Amino acid sequence: MLTNDEPVRAVFMGTPAFVIPVLDALLRSRQVSVEAVYTPPDRPRGRSRAPDLSPVKAHALECGLKVRQPPSLRTSEAGEEIESIAPDVIVVAAYGRFLPASILAIPRYGCLNLHPSLLPKYRGPSPVPSALLAEEASTGVTLMLLDEGMDTGPIIAQSEYPLSGMETSESLTEDLFRLGADLLMKWLAPWSAGAVQAMPQDDSLATVTSKLGREDGLADWRLTAAQLAVRHRAYAPWPGLFAHWDSKVVKFLDVAPLSDGVGTGAEPGLVLGTASHEMPLAVSTGQGLLGLKRLQLEGRRAVSAAEFLSGYPGIIGTRLE
Fold first, then answer.
1. Residue 106 DSSP class
2. Is residue 216 within 8 Å of residue 239, measured between CB atoms?
3. CA distance 290 to 30
4. Does the reported pTM lie above 0.85?
5. Residues of the chain where predicted confidence (pLDDT) is lower than 70
6. Cα separation, 263 vs 42, whole angstroms
7. What gap in Å lies between CA 112 and CA 123, rounded to an integer?
8. N or C: which end of the chain has fewer CB within 10 A?
């Protein structure tokens, strides 16, 4: 049980910036002592091949925490290292790697994971884009006890999050992990005290997501303008919504349906001029026009649609591949 005299010894495992609020919540608690932070090894980036630190590593070092970066957790060395730390609990948030049974068995309170969906819905690597693509009315975050499956462990607690229809994957992921940080700190003490039981998931209700690929962001102009706008939000910031024009990739950084439900009679993918100052360019779709607010041509900086049109007036009347 957690007490002020005996803080729980925690190991945190995570990688991207949006899970830093979870680590910070653990650091703020007087009932928790973060003994080490685990994150994947640095990767060389750019022409200099200089090591690129994960956001979690950079933040942990700023906080004076011990950082561990084993290439794999499946080696005896990795297991021995974690055993030497003697954590009471391991908290996992977007670490990106499976924990083997040998690691799962080490902490007495288990390995707790924050997953950005209401499990058993949207298990797997892309729960947030999947919820947006499905135009769900709400989603949420789940605090679960990890097992060897992919998001199949029993549920400790959940928190629902209503959707406005304006979220992007980036903004929603950030919001869900902030919510998850609160959820973790609400339930960590009761969990360690044995005052709450984890409930098995109903596998009959499970849905499984797949990993996003760059090709997912390629615009299919046969879809409606509204559907393409949903994909734009779901795929922001990566892989984004894009097409090919003049043998180059053009990214659509900000879009909005101009006339969903209105048929233009134009071939899907045809670029048209409009009378809108904010969106002087639009693309004909299977139903309605998709207005373009900001674009970025391969090798160029991001610009407003008006700036793009000024530099490339010949795009009007062409068809985007």
1. S
2. yes
3. 51
4. yes
5. 1-5, 48, 259-264
6. 51
7. 16
8. N
